[in-house]
Amino acid sequence: QVQLVESGGGLVQAGGSLRLSCAASGRTFSDYEMGWFRQAPGKEREFVAAINWTGGSTYYADSVKGRFTISRVRAKNTQYLQMNSLKPEDTAVYYCAADPSLPTLVGGTRVRYWGQGTQVTVSS
């Protein structure tokens, strides 16, 4: 059974940092594109960041560029999202995602695998 399990969410003050992890199991994801999405209350799920299967290319939403960093360790089937300079508007449930296609992953509508989500709350 394929699973993506996020961890590392929590409550942090504005300006603080958190590091999310996503551990994949059930198959190898070394050839999959991986990424993060988030969904705030009352809003649609939105793309946050993606990293290609080699780890050599990364992509970010404008709202997080310069503050968030995505990375992965292919041998461990794990990806990370380092979030710095957090703002109250970053409050959301953060989801890990994986798909063989980068355009599909970034598009977010037909992504093959999703995690269950982890809550990030940033207080002002």
Report on the structure:
The structure is a single chain. The chain is mainly beta. It is built from one helix and eleven strands; from the N terminus they run βββββββββαββ. It has one helix at 102-107; strands at 3-7, 10-13, 18-25, 33-39, 46-51, 58-60, 68-73, 78-83, 92-99, 113-114, 118-123. Strands 2, 4, 5, 6, 9, 10 and 11 form a seven-stranded mixed sheet that branches. The longest helix is centred in the C-terminal third of the chain and has 6 residues, at 102-107. The radius of gyration is 13 Å and the shape is globular. It starts with a strand and ends with a strand. The mean pLDDT is 96.
What's the quick description here?
The protein has about 120 residues and is mainly β. Helices cover about 5% and strands about 50% of the residues. It has one helix spanning about 100-105; strands spanning about 5, 10-15, 20-25, 35-40, 45-50, 60, 70-75, 80-85, 90-100, 115, 120-124.
Q: What is the share of helical residues? A: under 10%
What sort of overall outline do the alpha carbons produce when their principal axes are compared? globular
Rg from Cα: 13 Å
Q: How are helices and strands ordered from N to C? A: EEEEEEEEEHEE
How many extended strands? 11
What characterizes the major β-sheet? Answer: 7 strands, mixed
**What proportion of the residues form beta strands (DSSP E)?**
over 45%
The quaternary state of the protein chains shown equals: single chain
Number of helices: 1
Counting helices, strands and paired strands, the structural category is: mainly beta
